[in-house]
Amino acid sequence: MHELSLMEAVREQALEQASRHGAGRIVAITLRIGSLAGVEPEALRFAFTVVMADTMAEGARLVIEAVPAVCFCSPCGQPFPAPGGNCECPRCGAISLELLQGRELELRSLEVEEGSGQPVVVSESSAEDFP
């Protein structure tokens, strides 16, 4: 179950960001997960509960933003949806070699409680991929 090790990496990044901002508690963690990332969302949710126990993120909400697979067709010059990784252009039938999105596994945002007790978004990223 590689979701457990992925969630451990999420925990480390989230705790580091929260510490940098003087947070007392993590309220929510938002992840962007591509449909072709090879991650099972329900297993990730289970791992989240286990990995976040006894940390400032215990009881936090996990928000998963699903990112559908999209390829680019060179002959048509257009992107197209690629459900299940099917990269055959529905317009011309060409097989695309360019996946535009769908493999993401990113920490999108982190919501924390600072000294005031009000939730604040302290980190937003589109490039913090997990190992």
3D structure, described in words:
24% of the residues lie in helices and 34% in strands. The protein has two helices and seven strands; from the N terminus they run αβαββββββ. The chain has helices spanning 2-20, 41-52, and strands at 25-34, 61-67, 70-73, 78-81, 98-101, 105-113, 119-124. A hairpin with a 4-residue loop joins β3 (70-73) and β4. It is elongated.
Q: Which descriptors apply to this entry?
A:
single chain; alpha+beta; hypothetical protein PF0899 fold; disordered C terminus
- β-strand number: 7
Taking all Cα atoms into account, the compactness measure Rg is 18 Å
Strand content: 25-35%
Element-level helix/strand string = HEHEEEEEE
Distance between the termini: 14 Å
- Average pLDDT metric: 89
Oligomer kind: single chain
In spatial order, strands of the major sheet run 2-1-6-7
What is the CATH domain class of the domain at 2-68 and 102-122?
Answer: Alpha Beta
What is the CATH T-level topology of the domain at 2-68 and 102-122?
Answer: hypothetical protein PF0899 fold
Q: Decide which structural class fits the backbone.
A: alpha+beta
Shape: elongated
Q: Which stretches are poorly predicted, pLDDT < 50 over at least 5 residues?
A: 126-131
Helix content: 10-25%
Instruction: Specify the CATH architecture of the domain at 2-68 and 102-122.
Output: 2-Layer Sandwich
Q: Characterize the main sheet.
A: 4 strands, mixed
Count of alpha and pi helical runs: 2
